[in-house]
């Protein structure tokens, strides 16, 4: 079945969704299958998260103000946070410190349940406030790696600019860039969303580049105004991409991959394959790879890197 979406003829669900003068979403609604799978994944993650405890191997960086950890897939952020005190107690250097004063632990950033990678946890309210502000003001440069399935793109690098908002049905969707600032049915507004992408490999052919080399391609900026036209019958390739979100919107990378016709593998919410070449996926393959920022206390530039997950290493094998 062809997955061509016609800008002039919104689906019946979209038509129902926009009585009056509301913006029409440009990405597809949640597939029916996603509800059942998401529920099963949430239950599985609750069990896994309940048993989860951080190990020293999960720690990417630590100083007296913050600790940076590599969160595994399928674990809730809160469970990672809850297991930090035990890790600090078990650490010889921290024992004396934790006896005298319990650190005030906060999540400086959050990741979706199935997204793995870097999370910063601060050890005081003051440092937390500074870091949260840095994330909110887009002063933190982030890169992610995703393994996608779709037709191999013609571009090597692209920057997508669109709107982002919640539809009447509570799902996050892509909206036209010209709709930014308009009101949605629930009373919220369409906000701007910008993501840069670069291809690392197609069907295992490609090479890993350092995230610091990631550059925005000013010549290849696509401003989203119409529904994507995706040929559902075209050959499906495996594509490893690196992305850099330049705004911090919920499910931003997942939505933009869907719009580009290269949904993330396992991301059933946004048209990603649930089963691929005989393997069924427990979650989506998206990894928070690097964070570059000014240290909230020393002011020095720091870059944190998470180890590349196995699914990304496999995608780079020739």
UniProtKB/TrEMBL annotation:
Lineage, broadest ranks: Eukaryota, Viridiplantae, Streptophyta, Embryophyta, Tracheophyta
UniProt domain Pseudouridine synthase RsuA/RluA-like: residue ranges: 66-258
BP term (GO), one: enzyme-directed rRNA pseudouridine synthesis
Region Disordered, annotated ranges: 1-24
GO MF, one example: RNA binding
Organism of this sequence: Malus baccata (Siberian crab apple)
Comp. bias intervals (Polar residues): 1-20
Domain of life according to the entry: Eukaryota
Reactions mediated catalytically: a uridine in RNA = a pseudouridine in RNA
Name the record gives this protein: Pseudouridine synthase RsuA/RluA-like domain-containing protein
Pfam families in the record: PseudoU_synth_2
Gene3D superfamilies cross-referenced by the UniProt entry: Pseudouridine synthase
């Amino acid at each position: 079945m062809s997955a061509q979406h016609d800008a002039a003829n919104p689906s019946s669900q979209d038509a129902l969704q926009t009585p009056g003068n509301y913006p029409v979403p440009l990405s597809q609604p949640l597939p029916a299958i996603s509800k059942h799978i998401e529920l099963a994944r949430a239950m599985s993650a609750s069990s896994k998260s309940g048993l989860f405890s951080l190990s020293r191997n999960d720690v990417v960086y630590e100083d007296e103000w913050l600790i940076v950890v590599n969160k595994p897939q399928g674990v809730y952020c809160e469970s990672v946070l809850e297991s930090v005190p035990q890790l600090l107690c078990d650490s010889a250097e921290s024992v004396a410190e934790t006896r005298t004063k319990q650190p005030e632990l906060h999540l400086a950033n959050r990741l979706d349940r199935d997204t793995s990678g870097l999370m910063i946890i601060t050890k005081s309210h003051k440092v937390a406030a500074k870091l949260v502000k840095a994330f909110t003001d887009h002063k933190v440069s982030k890169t992610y790696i995703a393994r996608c399935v779709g037709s191999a793109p013609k571009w090597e690098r692209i920057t997508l600019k669109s709107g982002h908002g919640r539809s009447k049905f509570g799902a996050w969707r892509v909206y036209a860039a010209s709709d930014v600032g308009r009101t949605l049915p629930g009373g919220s507004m369409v906000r701007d969303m910008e993501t840069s992408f670069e291809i690392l490999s197609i069907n295992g052919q490609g090479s890993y580049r350092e995230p610091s080399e990631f550059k925005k391609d000013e010549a290849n900026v696509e401003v989203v105004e119409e529904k994507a036209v995706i040929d559902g019958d075209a050959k499906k390739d495996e594509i490893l991409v690196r992305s850099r979100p330049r705004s911090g919107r919920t499910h931003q990378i997942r939505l933009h991959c869907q719009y580009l016709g290269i949904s993330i593998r396992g991301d059933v919410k946004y048209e990603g394959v649930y089963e691929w070449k005989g393997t069924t996926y427990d979650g989506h393959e998206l990894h928070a790879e690097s964070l570059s920022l000014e240290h909230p206390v020393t002011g020095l530039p720091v870059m944190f890197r998470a180890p590349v997950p196995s699914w990304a290493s496999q995608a780079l094998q020739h």
